[in-house]
Design a protein that fits this description.
301 residues; alpha/beta; 41% helix
Length: 301
């Protein structure tokens, strides 16, 4: 896993843009191209082609169907290429038995530094029944993943620069891994960095866990994520809110007109995947409803 050191700036040399050619994928493309232009990246545009799932089809019918889908994918990828003019680029149709297997192979073979993809932002029953490919990627990926949800604004400038970055910190191992990325991106973009922690809503007569932390202690912990020498560049601001974590992150992003949210997340084993399908998950809720792209960095498992 690539872990960014505290004194190193971000460098996205290889950006993987994943597409299924749907509307959400198309809407994520401007984020990928803007970042590639800003950082001088090579962009790898890829589609993972899965085998047909019709178990009772004759082999020749399955082969014909796969060939037809492959031709369709190549035609769609040609449309993607028209948006990559002027960028170092590669386009790949990756055949794979499963989506994550194909993505993992692409990341390894191309030494990817960042994955960019769009999501339909399914929630509730639709998510339980259909799942979320975006969540599967950012739960398993050992490189940062930039996800554009249905509410995310597209870049209005070709510079691809971020002006205000929100780092949602939870004081766990995943946040410690993600913090250097938030700080480095703020420095690189000379953006304001907002550090946010959400405390549970106080309950009368009860206090446990992080509820025992005073606001001043939370602010001190948030400030410790930013090296002193970085304060001049990223103009850090600390926020402490009370309530439900995902809703408070989203509210802060809208209020402060944030154009990037950074979150550290836990890894994705089998049990974690089951859990996130059965209950609301903070990271996915933010990705699904954020007014800007969300950069997720997986903590060390």
């Amino acid at each position: 896993m690539k872990i960014l050191e505290a004194d190193k700036r971000i460098d996205f040399k290889q950006v993987l843009y994943l597409t299924d050619f749907s509307g959400p994928s198309c809407e994520a493309l401007p984020f990928a191209t803007a970042i590639a232009r800003a950082y001088g990246s090579n962009i790898v545009a890829a589609h993972v082609l899965l085998p047909p799932s019709f178990e009772y089809m004759a082999p020749e019918a399955t082969t014909n169907l796969l060939e037809g889908r492959q031709e369709w994918a190549h035609a769609e990828m040609e449309r993607v290429v028209t948006h990559l003019k002027g960028l170092p680029q590669e386009t790949i149709i990756e055949k794979s038995g499963s989506l994550w297997e194909g993505v993992a192979r692409l990341v390894k073979e191309h030494d990817i530094d960042l994955i960019v993809l769009g999501t339909h932002g399914r929630t509730g029953l639709k998510k339980v029944l259909l799942g979320s490919f975006a969540e599967e990627v950012f739960r398993h990926s050992q490189v940062p993943v930039l996800t554009s949800g249905p509410a995310a604004r597209t870049f209005t400038q070709e510079s691809g620069r971020f002006h205000c970055i929100l780092f949602a910190a939870d004081f766990n191992a995943a946040s410690a891994v993600a913090a250097p990325y938030a700080v480095s991106l703020a420095e690189e973009n000379q953006a304001q960095l907002i550090l946010l922690h959400v405390l549970p809503q106080p309950k009368p007569g009860k206090a446990n866990g992080l509820e025992q932390l005073s606001v001043s202690e939370v602010i001190h912990r948030l400030g410790s994520f930013v090296p002193q020498e970085a304060e001049f560049w990223c103009r850090p601001r600390t926020l402490v809110e009370y309530g439900e974590t995902a809703s408070q992150i989203l509210a802060a992003a809208k209020k402060h007109e944030v154009d990037l949210i950074v979150i550290g997340i836990r890894g994705g084993g089998r049990m974690a995947s089951i859990a996130t399908r059965l209950q609301r998950d903070v990271a996915y809720e933010v990705v699904a409803h954020a007014p800007c792209p969300v950069l997720t960095i997986r903590g060390v498992s």
